[in-house]
Design goal:
Blueprint lengths: L2 E3 L6 E3 L2 E3 L3 H5 L2 H13 L4 E3 L8 H10 L8 E6 L14 H15 L4 E6 L8 H13 L3 E7 L3 H14 L4 E5 L13 H8 L2 E2 L25 H4 L9 H16 L4 H10 L8 E2 L4 H8 L8 H11 L1
Parallel strand pairs: 3-4, 3-10, 4-5, 5-6, 6-7, 7-8, 8-9
Antiparallel strand pairs: 1-2
Helix pairs in contact: 2-3, 2-11, 3-4, 4-5, 5-6, 9-12
Length: 312
């Protein structure tokens, strides 16, 4: 496992982050979740991400129970406060009231004294950014949070937040969590250049395109039970022959390095200096071991050019 700094900060994390969405505290037994987290740490993973919204808080509870058994100063725990919901209530959104109470609730579920990285999960169009950033800064000043970040924010919103925090002298976003992988590269147009200039770390979610980039799906084939494609009919529309052909070509490049296409996809993300750590969501120990293999090696320039010709 290799390590790198998160954006402009001095915070050092593993190049692979284990996330708690869907599986941890969700659709697998708690003992399997605990095993995944323990093996991840033994394999060098020090970065773990969850959210108050994952499994209605159970993800934080299950993850926290296991992470509390590990050396606290060696791990980085990230979680998120929910953004705007379907209804306007005081128990959701990026208001000062909800952010402060949600942080206390997350600390309680995780069973820790502080959160290393606290992120706004989604933008909230009903709340002024000044209020949101003021509340997040308060948490940093209170010692409950070490760094703050955001997820799914537009570049314009991040830029505005940076201006606000520079003007007020507040803690600013040092990390952003967007959707990014070999098959979905929209952030390269504007978000990635902004992060490069501002020194904001990027921790992409869905780095394997929901499993597509593991090579386990076939065009026109029936997804296996308990896979994301099986549970989500809309996901199946991405399983086109053209996409599968691209993945097969990527697999051949990976094979020359004795790697899987999933490991190649993670290494490709890590070839970008703006990327801090892709967030993987392993369902079992076998998937985790493969995910960890995405770190510790680098793609050659010739391989990067080959990949670019394939995915475009």
């Amino acid at each position: 496992m290799k390590y790198r700094r998160m954006g402009r900060t001095g915070l050092v994390v593993s190049e692979i982050c284990v996330g708690g969405w869907i599986h941890i505290g969700g659709d697998i037994p708690d003992e399997d979740s605990a095993e995944i987290l323990r093996i991840a740490f033994r394999r060098g993973v020090t970065f773990f991400d969850t959210a108050e919204a994952y499994a209605a808080g159970r993800s934080e509870e299950v993850m926290g129970k296991t992470l509390r058994q590990l050396p606290r100063d060696e791990i980085v725990i990230a979680t998120k406060v929910s953004g705007a919901g379907a209804n306007l209530t005081t128990t959701q959104g990026l208001t000062r009231k909800h952010i402060l109470s949600a942080c206390d609730s997350s600390l309680q579920r995780l069973g820790v004294d502080y959160i290393d990285l606290y992120q706004a999960h989604w933008p909230d169009p009903n709340v002024r950014l000044e209020e949101t950033m003021s509340a997040l800064n308060h948490l940093v000043q209170a010692g409950k949070v070490r760094y703050i970040g955001c997820s799914n924010f537009f570049p314009e919103q991040i830029y505005e937040s940076l201006e606000i925090c520079a003007r007020e002298g507040w803690a600013r976003f040092d990390c952003v969590q967007p959707h990014y992988n070999l098959l979905s590269r929209d952030i390269e147009q504007d978000l990635m250049p902004l992060c490069r200039l501002a020194g904001i770390g990027i921790i992409p979610y869905s780095p394997l395109a929901g499993g597509l980039l593991t090579g386990k799906y076939k065009a026109g084939g029936k997804p296996a039970p308990n896979t994301r494609a099986y549970r989500n009919a809309s996901f199946q529309k991405h399983m086109t022959r053209n996409t599968i052909n691209k993945i097969n070509k990527l697999r051949r490049i990976a094979a020359t390095r004795k790697k899987t296409v999933g490991q190649l996809s993670l290494a490709w993300l890590l070839s970008h200096p703006e990327i801090t750590a892709p967030i993987v969501g392993p369902r079992n120990a076998q998937q985790l071991r493969e995910n960890v293999g995405g770190s510790g090696w680098r793609l050659r320039d010739s391989e990067l050019r080959q990949i670019e010709r394939i995915v475009g």
